[in-house]
Amino acid sequence: MVESVIEIEVVYAAVDRQVLRAVSVPEGTTVRDALFKSGIGDEFPELDLAECPVGIFGKVIADPEVRLIQAGDRIEIYRPLLADPKEVRRLRAAKAAEAKARNQ
């Protein structure tokens, strides 16, 4: 019996460049397996494909080892945040309040 193949995309945006790769994988492939089959780990050796956070169309996948992909899915590999967005906003607000107090 011939195994059915589906088309997906795998994307990763590094600091200096981004890659979008079309990949053909067998139906029933998990998200994590699709990452390894994409070969993107060869292009970005700093990525730990076994542990990196991933999503499909902007929604984080909690269990990429279990979640099966579907035809047309776009798997996104997420980089860790360099700074906590809440902390950055808090610091910016404190700086603005300090500047406002000096100008009064």
Automatic annotation (TrEMBL):
It comes from Pseudomonas shahriarae. It comes from the Bacteria. SUPFAM superfamilies: MoaD/ThiS. Belongs to the UPF0125 (RnfH) family. HAMAP family: UPF0125_RnfH. This is UPF0125 protein M5G27_21885. The lineage of its organism: Bacteria, Pseudomonadati, Pseudomonadota, Gammaproteobacteria, Pseudomonadales.
